[in-house]
Amino acid sequence: MIENVRVEELLAQMCDKRVLVVGDIMLDKYVVGDVERISPEAPVPVVHVRQEYERPGGSANVALNVQSLGGQGMLSGIMGRDSAGDDMLALLTQENISVEGVVISDDVKTIVKTRVIAERQQIVRVDREDPAEAMQCMVPELCDVLEEMIAKVDGVIIEDYGKGCITQKVVNTIISAAGKAGVPVGLDPKDNHDLDIPGITVATPNYKEACAAAGIRSELLNDQPETDAHLLEIGKILQERWQTELLAITLGAHGMYLLTKDSEPVVIPTRAREVFDVSGAGDTVIATAVLALASGASHEEAASLANIAAGVVVAKLGTAPCSASEIMGSL
User: Which of 239, 246, 262, 272 is the least crowded, having the fewest Cβ atoms under 10 Å away?
Assistant: First the structure.
């Protein structure tokens, strides 16, 4: 649905675009090893560790995707003043991602997700985090930072993992400041369905998230999702609620379902050739879509480019970003 030459043009135009990602910052830790036996203590595998590493996760992975695609990733959110936070700042600095919008507090812990992987399969995940309410005391300071930063960016992404950073006050600040600056706002929703988010440019929920946000039970899609009445109802509910210019619902193997205010639904077939790990794919979709819109792409071009990028990252293990060269290579 998008010509290769146009993809190359958009990727070139992304190079000087600054995108601010606002949301829950997480440190992803990976423990990788082999399994050769079951523990005599319990019916669980024994993992012999071969490798351990860390990557920026949550909203930080979205900023990393922006950076990997050639844009300037800028991050804003709340982190703890702790060893995990220090590790995160070091990783972000190493990737040249701006951290001037990050609020650091002694009153919260940096969110850490540790994944144990063996034989290319995730065995267990261990999460360390405070209750979402712990973030609330830092929200006023975060809003002050956002008003200053949005005035000098080309796009904004709201990355909500339901961990407490994205509140109604934060959303109101983003939409107001982005409206004054005339820049697109993207939403990657998770579980925080009570937020009033009117007038965003693009939203990219997956099918399960879209069903939950619309308050409709998830059902098995038919083989032609563009004619699926259940999906159309969900899309209309979310368009009315969010007043978004472009709604792109990712459907896994079915591709991506697009709805705009002025056109009939369109389905873009999936570009994935192999699927090893879908974690982080949603981050890639929203980062690519907003960066493309900030670079002059049409709604359909932005969605098509995001669909190509998603096909690249699901063939990787873990929350790995997609680069411009990988997009061109996949074509």
Answer: 262
Helices 281-294, 59-68: axis angle to 10 degrees equals 50
Would you say 156 and 171 are in contact if contact means Cβ atoms under 8 Å apart? no
Would you state the pLDDT for residue 1? Answer: 64
Domain membership of residue 69 (yes or no) is yes
Residues in the chain predicted with pLDDT less than 70, given as ranges, are 1, 191-193, 271-280, 314-320
Residues forming the active site: 283
Q: Indicate whether 219 belongs to any domain.
A: yes
For residue 149, the tally of other CB atoms under 10 A from its CB is 19
From 220, 213, 173, select the one nearest 189 (Cα to Cα): 213
Residue 59 β-bridge partners: none
Residue range(s) defining the domain that contains residue 213: 4-25+60-106+130-330
Nearest to 295 by CA among 18, 4, 2: 18
Residue 166 lies in a domain: yes
Give the CATH number for residue 248: 3.40.1190.20
pLDDT digits 0-9 by tens, 117-148: 998 889 999 999 999 899 989 999 999 999 99
- Residues in Cβ contact with 106 at an 8 Å cutoff, skipping those fewer than 6 apart: 80, 81
In a 3-state reduction of DSSP, which class is residue 91?
Answer: helix
User: pLDDT per residue over 23-57, tens digit each?
Assistant: 999 999 999 999 999 999 999 999 999 999 999 99
CB hemisphere CA count around 256 (13 angstroms): 31
